[in-house]
Amino acid sequence: MTTGRFHKMHGLGNDFVIIDARAEEMALSGAQAAAIANRHSGIGCDQLIILRPSSTADVRMQIFNADGSEVEACGNAARCVAKLIGDETRIETQGGIIIGNATADGAIVDMGKPHLEWQSIPLAYAMDALNMPVGWEDLQNPVAVNVGNPHVIFFVDDSATVELDRLGPMIEVDPLFPEKVNVNIAHISDGIIYLRVWERGVGLTMACGTGACATAVAAIKRGLVTSPVQVKLPGGSLVISWQDGEHIQMQGPTTYVFAGEADWALFG
Questions:
Q1: Active site residue 80
Q2: Sign of dihedral through CA atoms 172, 173, 178, 180?
Q3: Active site residue 208
Q4: What is the mean pLDDT of the chain?
Q5: Cβ contacts of residue 238 below 8 Å, gap of 6+?
Q6: What is the pLDDT of residues 60-119, one digit of tens each?
Q7: Does the pTM exceed 0.90?
Q8: Which of 45, 80, 208, 213 is catalytic?
Q9: d(CA 87, CA 94)
């Protein structure tokens, strides 16, 4: 496929270019993905999503970050894909199978079970991932959770006052995280989680579905909130449901922005 149709969608402002390559094979490099994602000279998006055939699910979702790197999972993208395809959709990702069910305004997505073992994050060496004895400046004692991709979560008094644009890129590439990490800053007020995310390979983002899931799990495990919990991000709210030992359920809206056609050979 050299020329093809694409869909532009977003979940709470976390936006995607989605290419359906299930019927026709499409090869795309990381450099091409980054060129498509460029907001000045490309189509523009946080992540480029390519839908491919799957032998284990209804569809396989390949996910490129805006910098051209590939990632294992994306909750907001899974909601958009579930809404785009409709009904119940089993989505294969590098992080495992995600099951999405379209709703009137978006989708409910089964994100699978979270992992809190240090090897599963992964971390560079053994420690208690629920009470990590590490810190970066005023950000101390985080929680690490893997929900298909790695997250570190800091609970603070006021998430809005943290210099996430400065601290996020520092923590993302710290040697403690061999596969880099998504950085979540959260505070809790009246049982609601207020969250900002520095997304690995993207930067500050309007919303991060896996970040909302990881932060909700961390807050529930620490006894700070109960399930279900509302997570408010700069782009809007998600509702996360989870009980220890069970799968995470994420519900939230999606928006179809427009469809277009492009010559993919022009990018890269």
A1: no
A2: positive
A3: yes
A4: 96
A5: 12, 207, 209, 212, 230, 231, 250, 251, 252
A6: 999 999 999 999 999 999 999 999 999 899 999 999 999 999 999 999 999 999 999 999
A7: yes
A8: 208
A9: 22
